[in-house]
Specification:
By secondary structure, this protein is mostly helical. The chain is built from eight helices and no strands.
């Protein structure tokens, strides 16, 4: 999704950020098209508010406050549209991540019931703590699924791994056993985090485009409401 660079808008909101995510490729980009579309709407929406601000400056029938409120009206419409799109895409990504994790973890969970799984975990737990991650890592890389899946099934403490070490090994297992699905999961997780981090930036960018703090705009609107009420009497 090609969008021309606009120096008035933060590059953090540019949709090209999606292409830099871990796992992004021609094979996985379809899973994060929604995130790219959300950023596209945010980036172009902020740019449009900047354009509107320039346009209303030529409207001599409005006061400075009137111009600001008119631009803010547009900014609020943009924010409502973009916020709803962000929420929808984040919900879709969350659902997709859950489905991908279930798919990736199914073989591991199934292996937990293997007759020798408990013995394998006990064996690993009996090792020096520093040797345990390396032992499981070696099992993964040589394709020893019985050992790797038994070790990674269930909570990390069953075979004496730290939660962080267990998570890293599980990711390595997924990359080895199902690289396409692992890349899909990685890019969706990255897109979800990206949208979560950029959501607040949209509000800030729109405030900058309007050129006035929301509290100042609110006071302008209150003053206009009082004047309209007085004129209506």
């Amino acid at each position: 999704m090609s969008v021309q660079i606009d120096t008035r808008v933060s590059p953090s909101l540019h949709p090209a950020n999606v292409a830099n995510l871990d796992g992004y490729s021609d094979a996985t980009k379809g899973y994060v098209e929604g995130a790219e579309r959300a950023l596209h709407e945010a980036y172009t929406g902020v740019a449009a508010v900047f354009d509107a601000k320039e346009a209303v400056r030529r409207d001599l029938s409005l006061t400075d406050a009137g111009r600001t409120m008119k631009v803010d009206d547009m900014a609020q419409r943009v924010f409502k549209k973009v916020a709803a799109l962000f929420d929808t895409q984040m919900a879709n990504l969350t659902k997709g991540i859950s489905q991908s994790e279930d798919k990736l973890n199914a073989p591991v969970n199934a292996r937990a019931a293997h007759p020798i799984a408990a013995e394998i975990r006990t064996y690993i737990r009996s090792m020096p703590e520093s040797d345990r991650p390396g032992f499981v890592f070696a099992a993964i890389t040589r394709g020893d699924l019985v050992t790797a899946e038994a070790a990674l099934a269930g909570p990390s403490y069953l075979c004496g791994l730290t939660p962080e070490g267990h998570a890293a090994l599980l990711r390595k297992y997924h990359e080895q056993a199902a690289p396409e699905e692992a890349a899909k999961l990685a890019v969706m997780q990255g897109a979800l985090k990206l949208l979560g981090n950029r959501g607040g930036m949209v509000f800030t960018a729109l405030e900058e485009a309007v050129g006035a703090h929301p509290d100042a705009v609110r006071r302008m609107r209150e003053a206009k409401a009082r004047a309209d009420k007085a004129l209506a009497v």
